[in-house]
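Fold Annotation — chain and its backbone
Next Lines — sequence and tokenised fold

***
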Amino acid sequence: MAANEQEPGGHGYSDHKDAVVKRLRRIEGQVRGVESMIEDDRYCIDIVTQVTAIQAALDKVALELLQDHAAHCVVGASPELQSERTEELMAAVKRLLRHG
């Protein structure tokens, strides 16, 4: 089984998928709000403040997904996949840290 294939029992976030989707929809609304702010010629710093809030919200989603991945897809993986899954997890953490 390849590292990105689904394990039996779903993904780590499967138990709270609805909450993740709800959070992403809220973020989507924030992005539309920023678009409206730009269309309305709002003050730059107010827009940047909202962009920062969106980034923080996305970071929180990413961290929760990484936590789920670590608990379910790395620790819960078969022994022959754990090393590969750990490397995959660490690469994702590095990407997340580089963006911030």
